[in-house]
Design a protein that fits this description.
The complex is a heterodimer. By secondary structure, chain A is mainly alpha-helical. Chain A has 7 helices and 2 strands. In chain A, a hairpin with a 5-residue loop joins strand 1 and strand 2. In chain B, a hairpin with a 7-residue loop joins strand 6 and strand 7. Chain B has a 6-stranded antiparallel sheet with strand order 3-8-4-5-6-7, with helices on both faces. In chain B, strands 1-2 form a two-stranded antiparallel ribbon. In chain B, 51% of the residues lie in helices and 13% in strands. The chains are: A mainly alpha, B alpha+beta.
């Protein structure tokens, strides 16, 4: 890769301090470190992964609206957490978390448990109780 | 309190953290030099290791290996520690930082890092940062993160969260490492460079006999497997897996083409330091291989973006990988032979 070929396709790095460093060859054949804003193929690859997550979230949201699941399952999926990881972060057993995925059990949760979930999922308790717009 | 270490962006986070630690102790090596001396070039495809529901494909060694290898090579004394108790872990960090006045590198999870863009927050527990100071008033820590363009700060609570990230690839328990002492005289780099190159060639071509997941054999293995993905997983899942390979190739600070370009830069610098001009030719060769990897990434990405003009199939990807494997194998074998010749001459 030549220095002037280093891609500068700014997308997800916008507004943050994070950037890539690429190594490329200048006109004299010498390697140089060049700051890169990103590259379309890798942005596309990230899109692909994010799309998958949002599709999953849509399906769960649909089930929540039908009353088949609780908002907890939605927020967990949105945070890329499976039951095991959520259990690791909250200290709540996996079996109980699966129970809390049912709306009637979720509605009966006490404030302490809700606060634990909210902290692990980086949202407030009020946000945890409903789906985002 | 802030230690006097300048920020220097680098492609790979572990190189960056090592570089900051070494620079504080008066050893100034470039990122490619660190990467090359630690024999960091790698490939593995391990189907039974699960990363977010996908098989592991990696262009880097296990986190922590680079630091271990390079400090051993240079004769530097180091220490690594984990603390199950959070308060203990933070106390030890403060102790090293404020009392012994030493920078400390931490392994942290990406997910709760506050300065990372939202889209990049994945449960990946292998990011390396270097702590160089603490603001006594606010309690914030000053961080060198080589993926950022400048120094950043992180609050104590956030730091505890990222240091004690759970699950994901693996739980961290506040892993940290630092340099205890450096030798008074730096060893001569020439024999070390030759040794490190020979070691890397062996890792890629013939290490771990009988294991087909690693090195050039790993690439052949992936080329076989990738052809079956569409049939085995269905079109959507297969595309996500292809996207995952592209992300491992480019995303996690590889300097482009899965570290191949960094290695090219290393070989070039090695040629200068050792006076062996032949290494320049090998630098050019690995650059060409890197360009091929980039082509692979472009064509693969068109598959999951569904560009109409693109007719790339999984078999094409497999063929490209096969081609890359044979090119790389020839490269490592030739390079190893050349380096061994010079090692014999130098009586190593």
């Amino acid at each position: 890769m030549k220095v002037d070929e280093v891609p500068q396709d700014l997308k997800y790095y916008k507004g943050s301090v994070v950037r890539d460093v690429n190594y490329a060859v200048d006109e004299n054949g010498q390697y140089k470190a060049v700051i890169s804003d990103g590259w379309t193929p890798k942005n596309d690859a990230l899109d692909m992964a994010l799309d998958e997550v949002s599709q999953q979230c849509c399906q769960i949201a649909e089930r929540v609206r039908k009353g088949e699941s609780s908002p907890l399952e939605y927020h967990a999926a949105k945070n890329l957490m499976n039951v095991r990881l959520l259990s690791d972060y909250t200290g709540i057993p996996k079996r109980k978390i699966r129970r809390h995925f049912r709306p009637e059990n979720f509605a009966a949760l006490d404030d302490g448990t809700l606060a634990k979930y909210a902290e692990a999922l980086r949202i407030t308790v009020a946000e945890l109780k409903c789906l985002p717009e | 309190m802030e230690l006097n270490i300048g920020h220097r962006p680098s492609a790979h986070c572990e190189n960056g953290a090592i570089s900051a630690l070494l620079r504080f102790h008066g050893i100034d090596l470039s990122e490619p030099m660190i990467f090359g001396l630690a024999s960091g070039l790698f490939f593995s495809h391990v189907p039974f290791v699960d990363v977010g529901g996908m098989p592991l494909t990696s262009f880097r060694t296990v986190p922590g290996f680079l630091f271990k290898r390079i400090t051993k090579l240079l004769g530097i004394k180091t220490e690594t520690a984990r603390y199950f108790n959070r308060e203990k872990g933070m106390r030890r960090l403060d102790d090293l930082l404020l009392r012994e006045k030493k920078p400390v590198a931490l392994v942290v999870g990406m997910y709760y890092l506050p300065y990372i863009p939202k889209e990049y927050r994945f449960h990946f527990n292998g990011h390396n940062i270097c702590i160089i100071g603490k603001d006594e008033e606010t309690g914030e820590y000053i961080v060198l993160d080589s993926n950022a363009t400048q120094k950043v700060t992180i609050s104590r609570n956030d730091l505890i969260k990222v240091r004690y990230a759970k699950g994901g690839t693996y739980s961290l328990f506040g892993r940290m490492y630092w340099i205890k002492s450096v030798p008074e005289q730096m060893p001569d780099l020439k024999p070390l460079i030759l040794k490190a190159i020979a070691k890397n060639c062996r890792i890629m071509t013939s290490a771990y006999r009988g294991v087909r997941y690693v090195g050039v054999r790993g690439m052949r293995f992936l080329s076989e497997r990738i052809r079956t993905w569409e049939k085995k997983m269905g079109p959507q899942k297969a595309l996500i897996n292809v996207a995952q390979v592209v992300r491992m190739l480019e995303e996690i600070g590889t300097g482009g083409a899965g570290f191949r370009f960094i290695y090219g830069a290393f070989l070039q610098e090695a040629a200068q330091r050792t006076g062996i001009a032949e290494l320049n030719d090998y630098s050019t060769r690995i650059t060409e291989i890197g360009d091929l990897w980039r082509t692979f990434a472009v064509r693969a990405s068109r598959m999951f973006k569904r560009r109409k003009s693109e007719t790339c199939t999984y078999d094409d990807l497999g063929d490209m990988l096969l081609n890359l494997a044979s090119k790389e194998e020839a490269f490592y074998k030739d390079l190893e032979k050349a380096v061994e010749k010079y090692m014999d001459q130098a009586g190593l």
